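Data deposition worksheet. Section B asks for the primary sequence of the deposited chain exactly as it was used as input, without tags or linkers unless they were present during the calculation. Section C holds the resulting structure in token form. Section D is free text for depositor observations; keep each observation to a single sentence. Incomplete worksheets are returned to the depositor.
Section A, Depositor: J.P.
Section B:
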Amino acid sequence: MNYRICTPSNIIRNCSPAMRRIYDSASRSAMVLAVFAYLFSGTVAAIDLRVVAPNAVREVVSETAARYERVSGNRTVLTWGGSEAIAKRVADGDVFDIVVNTPQNLEALVKAGKITAGSRVDFTKSGIGVAVRGPTEARCIKRGRTPEGVA
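Section C:
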């Protein structure tokens, strides 16, 4: 089984154009978060910056948090979870300085008065992909069938 793993070190050489676009989008997202966190640094100086984010963006948010800590001298406290679990925690009263979540969940939290209206910044779009081992599985996926031996 040969699966391509796209990391910063091999992104240009080994990955498809689509994966490069996803990585570029994630990099831009990290910069937006870094700027946002830097803007917060004046208001939360010497206080931990609490961030909650989905597991899907763990790498980007972790890198951004490390940059923020180097620039500001402040510490970040990162909390991870699924998008729905994050929305429930915030709705139930957990307080975070930055909430990273889906647009639908953020909008629901704004309507509930749990996050500040007008503070939402859309910084990336995300997609879901499918990878398969071989051409048989790929043909089945294109036709909407399950390959033999797969429940």
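Section D:
The longest strand covers residues 49-54.
The radius of gyration is 19 Å.
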